[in-house]
Amino acid sequence: MSGAALDLVIRNARVATAADVFTADIGIAGGRIALLGGGLPAGAAELDAAGRTVTPGGVDSHCHLDQPIPAPMRMADDFETGTRSAACGGTTTVIPFAAQAKGESLVAAVEDYHRRAAGRAAVDYAFHLIVSDPTPRVLADELPGLIRDGYTSFKIYLTYDDLKLTDGQVLDVLAVARAHGAMTMVHAENADCIAWLTKRLVEAGQTAPRFHAASRPMVVEREATHRAIALSELVDVPILIVHVSGGEAVEQIRWARDRGLSILAETCPQYLFLTADDLGLDDDYAGARCVCSPPPRDAANQEVIWRGLADGLFTVFSSDHAPFSYDDPAGKKPGGNEVSFEHIPNGIPGLETRLPLLYSEGVLGGRLTVNRFVELTATNPAKLYGLYPRKGTIAIGADADLVIWEERDVHVQNANLHHAVDYTPYEGRRLKAWPAKTISRGKVVWDGKTFTGRPGDGEFIACSAPSLLPRRVP
Ligand code: URP
Ligand code: ZN
Ligand code: ZN
Question: Is 204 buried (19+), middle (13-18) or exposed (0-12) by CB count in 10 A?
Fold first, then answer.
C-alpha cells in the first residue's frame, strides 16, 4: 500500500491469529486490512490497543435467526436483533439456516430467507441449508444448483418429526455432498429412542422440563453419532457432527478418526457451562430456559468437552443460538402455558456470550491457548464453510473484522445483552473479559458500551467450497 490513506489504524495491538501472536499496528482501508507492522502512518481515525489482545472477529457457524417454525412458536431474534447481539459479543459473521419445510422447495426457502435478512443484518452473513425433504428434484437440481451458487453446507437431522431423515435419505444427501464438494452437518440423536422414552415418561406423569434430559440420554446421541459416522464411511464423504454434548459421542468421533475417517465435530457453550441440573432439580418450570437438544450433561462430560477443545478433537465452537423467550406464548410457554417437556421449544440463546465465555474460561482460565481460541471461533469455521481467508483471520487483504479484548470483571446480566430474548442461561456468571471494541469491515459496531452498527450494513457472502475437506485422489 503506497500513499493510499488509511481509514483506521489500531496501534500497538497484541495480534493473535490461529498460528501466531505478535505486536503490530493494524492499518485498515476500504474495510480491509491494508497494512500490518510497526510505526504505520497516521489514519483518519486511530485506536490505541496497547496491552490489549486483538483477535479476528468471531464467525458463528451455527445459529438460528428468524427461522420459520410451526405456530405458535416464533424465534425471538430476527436478523436485526440477532446480529446486533452478535456484534456486541465480538462476532462479525453469522451463518444461520435457510430451512426447507417438508413438501416445500429448498430454493423457495433460500429466497424467503434472503427477504428476512435483507436490510436488517448489522454484520456479514452466509446461509447454511436445512434439508428436510430430499425429493428427487431437490437431490438432482435444487441442491447442486444451490451449492454452485454459494450455499455449500447443509444440516440434516436424525430426530424431530418435522425434520428427520431416514438412513436412506441421509445416504442420498451425503452422495450429493460428495459429488458436489459440500459439507453436511448432522444433528445426531436417535428419534425412535427419544419417542419411546418420552411416551413412558409422559405416561408416568414425568412432564417437568428436567425430564427433557431423561428423554435424550447420552446413549441416544452416541448411537446416532455412530450411525452418522457409518453412513459417512459408506458414502466416503466427510461430515460434521454438530453440538456434541459429552463423552460417549466424543468416543465415537475419536474411534472414527483412528480409523482414518473424516469426521469433524462442533461443540457449544452449553456443554461447558450448563448441566442437566439447570433444567431443574424439582418440577419448577424455570428449567425450561435450558431445554435444548442434546441436553447439557454433567461435570464429568464438561471436562471431556474441554479436553476435546484443547486437543483438536473439535473443529469449531458455535453458539447454536436458538432464541425463544421464557415468558412468551411464542416461546418457552407455548400458547401461554407451562407445557409438558416434549412441547417446550428446544434451544437457548448464546450469540453474544459465546466468545466472552470461551475467552474468559478457556484462554484466561488456562485451558486453551489464544491460538486455539481463534482457530475454534473464527479461522476453522471460516475455512470449513468457504469464507477463508476473507473471514476468520488477521492478514493483509482480509476483511477488517476484529475484536479488541478488555480484561475486566464482567457480571453477565440479560439486561446488558442485546438480543430480543428475555433471559440468558448465564445470568449472574462472572467473566474475566469482554470485547472493548468490535470492528466489522473497518467500522466500530460495538464500542464497549453501546451498539454502534446499523441494520443493513451486513452483507450476504456466498460461500466457496469448504476448505477443510481432505483432498481427494481421483
Ligand atoms: O435445541 C436445539 N439445539 N435447538 C436448535 C435446533 C438444533 O437442533 O440445533
Ligand atoms: Zn441440531
Ligand atoms: Zn441448532
Answer: exposed
